[in-house]
Structure formats: C-alpha cells, structure tokens
Design a protein that fits this description.
mainly beta; globular
Length: 132
C-alpha cells in the first residue's frame, strides 16, 4: 500500500522558518515528479512547488518564489519543503503529492506540474500556522 506521510508542520511566527518532510512508503518514487500543495480554510487547494525525479528541475507558484525551496533525497524516498520568511497568508494544510508515472518529465502530463490532476498519490496533510 502506497503511503505519503507529511511531517514538520506547526505554529511559527511571521518571518520564521519550517521544514516539511514527505516520506513515501509502499513503492519508490525516485523516478517520479513530486509536488506540494496547500489548502487554507475556506479556500481551494493550490499548488506550491514541484520537483522532477533528479531534483534538477523545480517549479514554484509565484507567491513562494525566493522563500520556499523544494528538494528530495531519493535514497530516503523523501521530499522536503524548506519554508522561510513565512507570512500569515502561508497558513494552510500542506499536502505532498506524487505522480505515479516513472521517468515522466516535469511538463508532461495533464496540466503540467501545478495541476492536481497529474498526481495520483496524496498524503494526509500537515498543518502550518503562521502567526502575525
């Protein structure tokens, strides 16, 4: 059974940092595009960042560029999201997602890396709360 388990969320003051982790089990995702999404209360889920299988290509939504960094450790089957200079508007439940297709490029598939429909596996989410 495939599982994605997020961790690292919590309460932090504005300007602070957090590092989220997403550990995969049940199969290896070292050849797969992985992504992070978030959902704030009363809002739709939105794309945050994505990374290709090798880590050589990343993609971010404009609101987090320069503040968040996505990375991966394929030996650990884990993807990370380093979040810095956090703002209250970053408050949300953060979800990890995985594309089931191995060796697929970042821009192949439905809607590209920012589209939730290209991802087949999702974690349960971790809460990030940024206080002002």
């Amino acid at each position: 059974q495939v599982q994605l388990v997020e961790s690292g969320g919590g309460l932090v003051q504005a300007g602070g940092s957090l590092r989220l982790s997403c550990a995969a089990s049940g199969r290896t995702f070292r050849s797969n595009v992985m992504g992070w999404f978030r959902q704030a209360p009363g809002k739709e889920r939105e794309f945050v960042a994505a990374i290709n299988w090798s880590g050589s290509s990343t993609y971010y939504t404009d609101s987090v560029k320069g503040r968040f960094t996505i990375s991966r450790d394929n030996a650990k089957n884990t993807v990370y999201l380093q979040m810095s200079s956090l703002k209250p508007e970053d408050t949300a439940v953060y979800y990890c997602a995985a594309d089931k297709r191995s060796n697929a490029g970042m821009w192949t598939g439905l809607g590209g890396p920012s589209s939730s429909v290209r991802y087949d596996y999702w974690g349960q989410g971790t809460q990030v709360t940024v206080s002002s």
